[in-house]
Amino acid sequence: MTAAFVLGEVLCGQTDIIPAVSGRIAALILPVFLLLTIVWMYWRKARGGSFLMMAVMLLFGFFCMRSAMRKEPLEVRLEKAESVCGAEAEGVVDSVSEKEDRVRYTVRDAVIRIPASDGGTETFRAEKIYVTRLEEREEYGIEPGEPARFHGKLSLFEEATNPGQFDFKRYYRGLGIRYRLQADSAERLEGENESSPAEMAAYRIKKRAERAIDAVCLPEDRGFFRAVLLGDRGFLSEEDAKLFREGGISHILAVSGLHVSLIGMTVYTILRKTGAGYGPAGAAAGVLLLIYGIIAGFGASVFRAVFMTILGMGANFIGRTYDRMSAMALALLLLLIPSPYLLYSAGVQLSFAAILAICVLENRDRRRKRREMLEEKNRNRDREGRRNGGKTICANGFGRIFGKGGGTDGRKASCTADALPCADRIRGAFRMNAAIQLFTLPVILQNFFTYPAIGLLLNLVVIPLMSFAAASGFFGAGLCALGITSFAGAVIAPGHYIYHFYRFLCAIAEKAFFLQFTPGSPSNLAVCGYYALIFAAFYEDEIRIKLNLRKKWGFGLGIAIALGILFIRRPLSGLEATFLDVRQGECLVLRYGDHTWISDCGSTQDKNVGENRLVPFLKSRGVTHVDTAFVSHSDADHVNGISYLLKEKTGISVGKLVLPTVAISSDRYDSLKETAKKAKVPVEYMDAGVTSAIGKTDPWGGRMRCIHPLAGEKPDAEEPNEHCLAFEVSCGKLKMILTADLPETHEKEIVGQIMEHKSERDTGSGKASDNTSDKASGNTSDNASDNASGKASGNTSDNATGKASGNTSDNTSGKASGKTVTILKAGHHGSATSTSEALLKAVKPDLVVISCGRHNRYGHPAPETMERIRRSGTKILDTEFDGAITIRSDGESVRTETFRQRRSRAADCRSGSETGNRP
Q1: Which option is the CATH number for 80-192: 2.40.50.140, 3.50.50.60, 1.10.3210.10, 3.40.50.11540?
Q2: Which Gene3D superfamilies is this protein grouped with (predicted)?
Q3: Residue 205: how many other CB atoms lie within 10 Å
């Protein structure tokens, strides 16, 4: 039933987000799913009521998701403006958390007032809003349950517009929050605290526990113990968070079933052993778990663990069998009914995938044990009627014949029996860990794109020790809170040493970079195939019996094929060019086969564009090496992402950096050159005429030719736009002109280069060979290499682009039937001083791509530029409304895809008036 509910949500979500594509997908998947479900239920001899229940749940899930996706009036209003200043929000504080000097509030039942155009105010209501405020810890005194009023800037959460980018809007929608307020003032209102006694007690306990942890722990340990005991990662250093994540053990920093079992089951067991009945013991442990859940924030994983534990104790009380799988399904159902968007949360997916692995493995072991018991019973029945020379065959199944005393062999058997439980425990821990890793692997790859294989080994050590670390933290902080400080430090000491042992293991794992696999984000089809094979492998015996198969097809073979589906990727066939949405800036990623090039990456609206957009995109495509990074000029909106890639340890290496020739003498590039030198990346310089081959092994070939700046020119270094690198990229029947930020006065040089090159092609003279080197006109810095540019290693798949967060759209599909498809990247983000009529007439583009940011202060793209493009009859796509724009060509056909569905303007052409009226 839960599966039907989830499918209903997915189908509804896809249908609303991308109707052009998902309508066809839903029409294909739904009948297949229903057919397979009917076959399965017939196989299991299900009754008619089960079919009816499945249909009801499918429809229920569909309407739940549709209701959750409906936009509120205030949300529609805020989509037309980046933010609204002078907003006021009033409501009941639901939770309070802190991070250094920043306090974060969740406010429920909020009344929001924003200024109206007529000078008055407009009033809206919201279920929850997220408020952040910079203030000293001693100053804030608003507690959960108290009414409060906040003033500040109201906005929506950022939505993912690129493959691999984290979708804050979807994440907070799963928490029931649509709006955020950056408050500059806050005040407590008169009124009673609306918290329940349990919530008030939990808050008091949490504040006391925080003070106890701060008092008893060393400064470097506070963040760790706050995270693992209270679920508060606000004080965990970024270095530790990254270290644990790359080591594959970041799950220990979240409150989960381990903590719930440690608290609830310990209390439950102690009460049972002291003579308490199932009811009193379960009630006491349940109340304690509810309070702890409130302290930890009652996230999805905490709710699942608390709910399933209480359900298990309740089953004991009423004398019924506890079924873990059914309890897990019910917990997921209860989570998704009020918040269907939790379906897309990585934390929810990991939590339920892990518990599903435990359920499947336990079910497999239970079936196998039952089968072995039946076989043993049959063997014993046969032995009863058979004698062998007065000696009996030992009933333990070893088949040895013993005398009456047993002698030395008996002693050995006893020793072996004593040793078996320990070996079984080690083997069981390894099997459980391996099963969890198998079931969570697709979730990790789809959300984080990298799999630390060494985590499989680390978890064998980390998970058992975590019980001791958490227990020492609980008891140490508890003693300190009770005023027994003399022993608290000694009690919490084991947790301190375990924490630093974890850091030591992760530091070793960080050096084992060869065990970090980055296959990229698998497609949904690959994930479905993977799980089908995994379930078939775990239920191999049952499938073999049902299908009357005599030979085992192999558990290991099924696992190996499933892993191959996720990790083995064939290189791209043809050229893929992706214009990333970096807001106000520019970034182009070119990929061919297993090679990658980057042309510019920077933004003035997203200062962390490298971390937030570029690196996630590359990893989602399985790229671990960039052959060449081209920087057209020194402006920040073209450079800061490249600087991040060179400076930080991202797991992505760069082969070389290419700059315009003016960078040899201009101090504008000194910082970038120094960063490249520290990263041991060679720097080369380029001007017009330099060509590098793309796909030279294919019959149609391809190349990237520099068409600006002209060789021998000495442009003014103080005007970086005038010496921009510009390129002509050709691949079969695809041709792209990349103009960077060149002004109109220098576009005539591009026109001359294009016309001259076209004349050479027409006459057959001056044909550029495929092995032309892209070395810059003779000048290279320190470690400049003499190789041809542009080769990157890394496994990438040729799946449809725009596949992060599920928003993908195939807007145009054009075949180059005997005609070259020309794509022009509009100059200077569509400013009025670029993309002149002369350039448009010379290039005659079929598509113009504009890279600009929404609500940018420059007014890009300019209305007059849009009018010029409109008059040329050219189709327009821009990153502001379309998100990442991907163009693919196999040499014969050209296909264009956008990450987002067009929402504000027609897909074929935008007029100048439309641009002028943009919000």
Answers
A1: 2.40.50.140
A2: Ribonuclease Z/Hydroxyacylglutathione hydrolase-like
A3: 16
